[in-house]
Amino acid sequence: SSLGSSCFSIASFSTSEQQQQVAVSLLLQTLQMFLARTLRPVSRSLTSVRAFSSSAPSQDVLKQRFSEVVPAQVAIIKDLRAKYNDVVIGTCTVDQAYGGMRSVKSLITETSLLDPEEGIRFRGLSIPELQQQLPAADREPLPEALLWLLVTGEVPTAEQVESVKANLASRSQVDDYTLELISKFPKDMHPMTQFSSAVLSLQRQSKFAKAYQEGVHKSTYWDYAYEDSMDLIAKIPQVAANIYRHTFHNDTFIAPDTSLDWGQNFSRMLGFNDPAFEELIRLYMVIHSDHEGGNVSAHTTHLVGSALSDPYLSFSAGMNGLAGPLHGLANQEVLRWLKGFQQQVGVGVCDTESIKKALWDTLNAGRVIPGYGHAVLRKTDPRYTCQREFAQRHLPNDEMFKLVSAIYEVAPGVLTEHGKTKNPWPNVDAHSGVLLQHYGLVEDNYYTVLFGASRALGVLPSLMWDRALGLPLERPKSITKISTLC
Predict the structure, then answer these.
(1) Residue 37: helix, strand or coil by DSSP?
(2) What angle do CA 169, 171, 176 make, to 5 degrees?
(3) Quick one: CA torsion of 23, 26, 31, 36, rounded to 10 degrees?
(4) Cα–Cα distance, 252 to 244 (Å, whole number)
(5) Cβ distance 181 to 225 under 8 Å?
(6) Which is catalytic among the residues 190, 327, 394, 418?
């Protein structure tokens, strides 16, 4: 499991100089405890192992491994809470309470961590490290490899990735009712509304909901949360692809090919048969999957799941959050802005002075430069950087890419001089739409569904862990403006 993820929570406990000294001591003790447990055989925690014995068939290697790594984490958290339960990990000011709870430390999410300077780390690994260490079909990591990493905290072998691929393929058949429902949606219904609704249609098959109604012991909740989550991840490519073909291609659906990997099959069902586009989809699915636990879609999925709503209900709720203009819709808004910007300066015009003037015109008109700035990051988003590198390899002469590159050279300076943006650097949304439209996926109204399909790879493993760790109903305390003064 991820040692880095286990340690960060301890390190963030310090709120004063005295507590910092205590925290260092506690951190060293926890490291010793972690190493001692990790070096012992799994059978050491007999009670926990029995509680997390898996009913998985022998071919579900991921589920078996998940059942093996959970007990050590349960034991670590139990000791952590027993010894350090009263240690303060953060505070909340009046400004933060009215300002969207920014930077308030109150959630534990082990699958990823967002650092203001380094950017996102998935189980301790940066995006370049994912590209170096995770098994790939060509150059970009396979989504199946990321799924193994986020569920277990371990970098998988090629053989383990193949087992996940086969596992998902065996679960991927979508029921006729849901496919028929998609084909009946109004053409003018937003693709994200269709996506959320289709996920709810799949909920009729929830193993978690059925098991809960039958009164299974809470120690086995993780088993059914895992089953639902894997079933949903497996079915998402066909659900999402059918929504695309229904809305934009007159219901000319393309049958799945389960011999292909998850991202490649998705790409083919969308209607594309281009190895470069398939690589882009793999990269897109990996880098959009998770962004720690405080963003709207991740937090909503976790919050709804804490009520023991099954993964279908929880994920659908998260997708409704992702559909908001301030979250997942931002990528389509950026592309529309870029097209307008291109018309303003002229196609092929990328000189510094023209770009600078157009950017200042945008700001002086009281508008923002979309795709720039981030609630946490204070540097260029590594997800932007890896997409830029992809474009430099595959589409260096694309006119829109040239414009994006020119804006990248000028916008941070303009925004810094403007003085109203804490982070003048581009985020992931500043680039993704340009790549998609280059390969012919030009329907920007659909882009958030791609984001949603990717996000399943991150929030659903977190939901598995929520149930494995027995996390309770989330219920923060709210106050009134008068009570803040008392």
Answers:
(1) helix
(2) 110
(3) -170
(4) 10
(5) no
(6) 327
Report the C-alpha gap between 388 and 382 in whole angstroms: 10
- In the chain, what are the helix, strand and coil shares in percent, each to the nearest 5? 65, 5, 35
Count of alpha carbons within 13 angstroms of residue 51, beta-carbon side: 19
| Catalytic residue flag (residue 288) | no
Query: Could you tell me the maximum CA-CA distance found in the chain, to the nearest angstrom?
Result: 69
Instruction: Give first-to-last CA distance, the chain, whole Å.
Output: 45
pLDDT digits (tens, 9 = 90+) for 25-66: 444 444 444 433 333 333 323 223 333 444 444 579 999 999
Q: In this structure, what token pair is assigned to residue 71?
A: 């007990």
Site of tokens 């205590």: 22
Among 60, 381, 429, 466, which one carries the catalytic annotation?
429
190 is catalytic: no
CA gap 331, 430 in Å, rounded: 7
- What are the C-alpha distances in Å from 355 to residues 343, 348, 351, 418, 428? 12, 11, 6, 15, 20
Q: At what angle do helices 275-287 and 382-394 cross, to 10 degrees?
A: 170
238 burial level (CB within 10 Å; 0-12, 13-18, 19+): buried
Q: How far is CA 159 from CA 148, 155, 262, 380, in A?
A: 12, 12, 15, 35
> 159-168, 214-223, 257-266, 374-383 — which is least confidently predicted?
374-383
Angle, alpha carbons 229-233-239 (nearest 5°): 125
C-alpha closest to that of 238 among 259, 253, 250: 253
DSSP conformation letters of 241-302: HHHHHHHHSTT------TTS-HHHHHHHHHT---HHHHHHHHHHHHHTS---S-SHHHHHHH
> For this structure, is 444 an active site residue?
no
- DSSP letters of 107-120? ----SEEEETTTEE
Active-site hit among 246, 299, 302, 374: 374
| Tens-place pLDDT, residues 101-151 | 888 898 999 999 988 888 899 999 999 999 999 999 999 999 999 999 999
pLDDT higher for 82 or 373?
Answer: 82
Which of 103-117, 227-241, 330-344 holds the top average pLDDT? Answer: 227-241
